[in-house]
Structure formats: C-alpha cells, structure tokens
Amino acid sequence: MKNLVSLRHLTAADQLISGIAEIGRLSCLQRLHVFEVRTQAGYTIRELRDLNELRGSLYVRNLENVESKNKAGATYPSWLKTQWLTDLNIVFLSGCRRWESLPPLAQLPSLKVLWIQGMDATKSIGRELLGPGGEVFRRLEELVLDDMPELREFLGDRRFFPRLRSVVIKDCNKLKTLPPLPSNLTELTVLDHGFWMPYFDDTGTAPVGSVVSSLCVYNCPVLIAGFCVSLKEEDSLSSLQTLSIDDISLLTGLTASKNLACLQNLEIHSCLKIICSTTEQEKAIEDLTFLQTLCFNGCANLRSLPKLRGLRYLKKLIVSNCPQTQSLPKKGLPASLKVLEIASCHPLLKERCGKECGSNWESIRHIPRVEIDGEVIQEEASGN
To answer: Locate the R13L1/DRL21-like LRR repeat region domain: which residues (predicted)?
Structure first.
C-alpha cells in the first residue's frame, strides 16, 4: 500500500485505514477522514506532514500519544499553519491542553467549521488567528468554543467572520469578550457557565439581539443575572424566533423589557423555578403574542399550566417529564392549537384528558392531534 504514491482515493472503513502504516507516503491522497496517532513507527503525527492534497474533513485522534516535546509542547505543529491544507473544510482541535495560542487558521481558505475544545492554557484569542497576511475567515459558518477554563477574551472586529451563522460557547467560565458578530449570525448557544456579555462596546456595532434568530442558554446563572440587569426596552431582540432556556428568570426579564416581539418557539427545559402560579411567570408567557410552539420538558415543580388562552397563534403544545403537572389551564387552550403532546406527567393529567370521559376532554376536543404517553388518542385526517 505504501508504494502507491499516486493513489488519490482510498475507500474503506476508518478502522481499516487507521491500521495502514506510513500512510504519509500516499502524498496524493485527497480524502482521509480519521488519523489515529500511535507511538509505533509509521503511525506518528509526522505522517500528516506530506499529505498536502487532503480535502474535506480530517479528525486526528489520540494526540496524547504525541510524546516528543517538540511535537506536543505549548504551541501548534508547523504543518497546521501552512497553505497545504487549502481544501480543508472542518477543523476540530481537542485536548491540546498546553497550547497557549492558536494557529493562523484563517489561512485555510475553505474552512467552514471550527471546533476548539479542551484547551486549558489558552487565555486570549486574537489576531494570531489571521496570520501575517491578515487573512479573515472568508467561509467560516460555525464556531464552537468548548471547555476552555482560562479563556478570558476573544478579540477582533466584525471583519473576522463575514459568513458566520452559528456560535456555541460552552464551559468558558471566564470568557467576557467576543469580537462583534456579523449581521448574518442566526444561532447563538451558551451552555454550562459560559459567561458572555451580549452587548458590545464598539460604537456602531449592532447588539446580538438585532441579528440572532435562535438563542439557547443553559446552566448559566451568572450570565442570566447580568443579562437581565443590562436589558433596556430599546435592546429589542427583534429577530429572535426560537428561545431555549432552563431558567424562567431570563424569560421574565426579557418579556418585562418587551424584548421578544417576534418569538415563535419557546422551549423550557429542566427548570425548577417554574411553577406557573405566580403572576409574573404567567404574564411572561401571556405576553408572547406570536408564539406558535411551546414546550415544557423536565420542569419538576410545574403543577399546572399557565394561562394560554390569549396565545391566538399557538399551534403546538408539548408537556413532557413534568411529574407534578396534573391539569390543563382552567380557561382552556387556544382555538388555534393543532397539536397537543403529553408524556410522563402526573397520572391525573392523563386521566383528565381521556377521550370523551376525561374532565378536560371538552377543552381539548377541538385539537386535531392529541397524543398522550405515545398513544395518539385523536387525529383528524388532513384537510378536515
């Protein structure tokens, strides 16, 4: 195999290809999905040095087997900053825990997805990503920063990511600064104590709310507290259509400042605070005038559903894994509702929604599709 120096295409299972020694001799190879670093000769990281024609994505595993200080030190390998990888679409950097800085990945002109994970020593990200020529990420669409406990700042300007559409920040406890995001950004996800102030200091830079259509915030109490305090009525999340949260206080803060004018989809997961017996919580949901989909999942203290009658555009309601939820709203559900799904809630709720005989049946008989614990108890034919 190693003598086939002109071979361009090699199709086989990843496990089989990973067993080929000295694969670096196949210098014309255009596709290599996985490379597993081993300590044995013929499987070291050096094998990637001459694979200049690789395209698509490459996943490098077992970097813990890179033993040489020169290969596994506080910086990146030289081959990662060259023009050789011009067709690379996806870069996943994981477990490079001694790297203090990142390579100039903007020099990869075809890069669309950049995932950076498990880098303990990196405190700042900035212009080093661009390289000496000042290149920007011309095609990057997705950026993930995951498990970077010392990262404090990501500096730059809006020219960095002209096509960026999705940003995920997870386990970046100390991160407080991001570069301005482009106007075409549509998805923002902040998870597990990721701390990021959502408004920028740059004069003339639009706040994230004016461009993002999907926002997901989980397990970020410090972020939520700061976010709600900083909100003003003029900071309208004018493009936000989907919101997924695990803390009702974020929702109450947003609705109180009239910041969810266009919200269509709301998902509340594993929220212990939501009980929907407080006026503030009920009003927060009632104010979502254009809501079309509402999901309560894993809300252990949710005893009854809030008033929903005023949500005249609501089409789908999902209530799952809410063991204390026993009843539907007393005033019934919106006439616009097309789908009702209930799963793993209090047994009384299932009994009350029983077809024809349940005490809540009259309030849900108008809904074309009703599903309870996986059983469809009502479904109207399409067009009826």
So the answer is: 72-119
Tokens of 376: 């469809």
Q: Alpha-carbon distance 134 to 74, whole Å?
A: 23
Q: Round to whole Å and give the CA distance between 53 and 321.
A: 50
Q: Does residue 222 sit within a domain?
A: no
Residues 170-201, buried b or exposed e (16+ Cβ, 10 A)? Answer: bbbeebebbbbbbeebebbbbbebbbbebebe
pLDDT at 117: 92
Name the pTM for this structure. Answer: 0.71
Q: What is the 3-state secondary structure (H, E, C) of 159-170?
A: CCCCCCCEEEEE
Smallest CA-to-CA distance from 79 within 35, 40, 122 is with 35
SS3 category, 330: coil
163 lies in some domain: no
Domain-located, residue 107:
no
The parent domain of residue 289 ranges over 264-384
SS3 track for 179-194: CCCCCCCCEEEEECCC
- Flag whether pLDDT at 70 surpasses 50: no
Closest among 255, 223, 252 to 236, alpha carbons compared: 255
How many domains does the structure of the chain reveal?
A: 1
Distance, in Å, from the CA atom of 8 to the CA atom of 27, rounded to the nearest integer, reads 8
